[in-house]
Design a protein that fits this description.
five-stranded antiparallel sheet, alpha+beta, single chain
């Protein structure tokens, strides 16, 4: 999945695949996680949020099926 680098103290890059409704987040540690059944509307909110880390903690972590991919 293609990700884009972002400015964040917690997250290095984010990407979204609309066909599978999968969000991918690469953290500063280098670990990559995928979140499944992620709504496209939430992707636009996440991508447009001022603080990606705060949005992630408030709206994503623990809310979706997930798996570590690297």
């Amino acid at each position: 999945m293609e990700r884009k680098d972002i400015e964040s103290t917690m997250i290095r890059s984010i990407g979204f695949e609309s066909d599978s409704s999968t969000l991918e987040v690469e953290f500063k540690s280098g670990v990559v996680w995928q979140y499944y059944d992620f709504p496209e509307s939430s992707w636009y909110e996440f991508d447009g949020s001022e603080s990606k880390g705060k949005f992630f903690l408030r709206e994503i972590r623990g809310q979706y099926s997930e798996s570590q991919v690297s």
